[in-house]
Amino acid sequence: MSSLKEKLYRLLDSGYQVRTWTELNRTFFAALKLEKIAMFIILTLIVLVAAFNIISTLSVLVTDKTKDIGILKSIGLSSKGINRIFMLVGLLIASFGIILGVGLGLGLSFLLRKYQFIRLPQDIYYIQYLPVFIRWLDVGLIILAAFLISILFTIYPARKAALLNPVEALRYE
Amino acid sequence: MILSKNLISAKSIIKTFTQGAKLVPVLRGIDIEVSKGEFVVISGPSGAGKSTLLHILGALDCPTSGKVIIDGEDIYSSSDEARARLRNKKIGFVFQFYHLLGEFSCLENVYLPKLIAQNLYGKGESNLYPGQDIRKNALEILSLLDLKNRADFPPAKLSGGEKQRVAIARALINEPDIIFCDEPTGNLDSQSGEEIRSILMRLNREKGRTIIVVTHQRDLFSDCGRLINIRDGLISEEFVLQEVK
Questions:
Q1: Do A75 and B61 touch (CB under 8 A)?
Q2: pTM of the full structure
Q3: Which of A156, B161, B196, B202 has the largest count of CB atoms under 10 Å?
């Protein structure tokens, strides 16, 4: 945009002013930027709540399975083995969530692109409907981030399970 | 590796629990030596420290101080991984409340230690599903204990005596050197208790397994090899009833 502006400026006489669309609607774009920041904060909070859900689900599972952990340790499963089981459970929950989330998100985006069912007031936004542009790099980054966050939040409950004393675990009712 | 003629050698075992700010001594310096093929019964009043001693001898709980040597290996100076491997390969446990996994069938409960051995401590490829040989092996042990027709049952559908026999089958699957039993007849009626006693006796006399039983019912095991009485965290009496052949 700015290179086009420069080219036009060079072509035209000094009596002309060249301004881009974004410069003309500076307030509108500032508002959109603010909206983007607010959306980012809201989405981060949603991700955090979801991640804490993984911690609480796994912590409940560890408490629920305390006796079984004791039994498995008594028959020779090491702390590392117990840790691996709970990491696997965490990753299964995460994978299920990621597949479901990405599937629903992409599905909705394709539908929106095809049927344009979210209309926008044209006098404010200059376009008639909510535009959709899928950037596959972003999709990949989101999947990677979700996996990393899930692994990070699975470490604590899995470690808690692995460090259980087998004798105390066997006594647990 | 420490060379010793004993299969188990425990020296100056002290175990102290903490209850808030209070220290509760449970074992106050116990020395025990067990030879291969022995049948040892540990008896004593409630709270004497019998089960704690069994857990420490069986690599389940660390002593506050002291040494336990099993088959030449100082188990509490080895890693958690090494102790887990020892529990899997050389030790079998039978508990008062059976401790079977309720979500698995009896057969699955029995072959689980073998599956762990195959996946974590084996040399071959790991496989989360049991091969035909593992299932066959587990079924053979269940047959020996008259439980073949219960193989696919969940433990909840079994009587106390049957559950304890499944627990014995599970303890035997990896052919351990030592079987530790914590009140194995404590939750059973007299007939089932007698059955369990006779199975343990047979395993000791016919298969040469080293068996250590903690019990209140010392009369039930009056024909064992050695009887050790524990009182207030110390060995109060010891009787050799039968020499190891």
A1: no
A2: 0.86
A3: B196
